[in-house]
Amino acid sequence: MSTEMARGSAARPSWSTLSSYHKTKMIFLAAAFFSFVLSVTLWFLVDREVGLFVGLWVPAIHSLGTLVLVGEDTQ
Q1: Under the phi-then-psi rule, with left for phi > 0, alpha for psi from -120 to 50, and beta for the rest, what region is 71?
Q2: What are phi and psi of 19, to 5 degrees?
Q3: pLDDT confidence of residue 52
Q4: Distance of CA 15 to the CA centre of its chain
Q5: How far apart are CA 58 and CA 66, in angstroms?
Q6: What residue ranges do the domains of the chain occupy?
């Protein structure tokens, strides 16, 4: 049982083994997720207009990530 768990954890890549393409992709996804959480928080706790404004950052971050990552994956 412990050897199966060891194999399963060894099969997962760590941050240091990821390619620069995948690291960049993860950074953009994390930024978009953070923006989404911030938007929902602002919508309910501060002001709806501010939350809506920050919510518009999510597709903008995804679009920027797409532009940056186009042509990066050569595999």
Answers
A1: left
A2: -75, 165
A3: 95
A4: 14
A5: 12
A6: 19-69
Please compute, for residue 28, the number of CA atoms within 13 A of its CA located in the half-sphere on the CB side. 17
pLDDT tens for each residue of 5-62: 555 556 777 888 888 888 889 999 999 999 999 999 999 999 999 999 999 999 999 9
Q: How far is CA 23 from CA 20, 37, 65, in A?
A: 5, 21, 12
Predicted local distance difference test score (pLDDT) of residue 33: 95
Buried b or exposed e, range 19-30, using 16+ CB within 10 angstroms: eeeeeebeebee
Distances (CA, A) of 28 to 1, 9, 41: 37, 25, 20
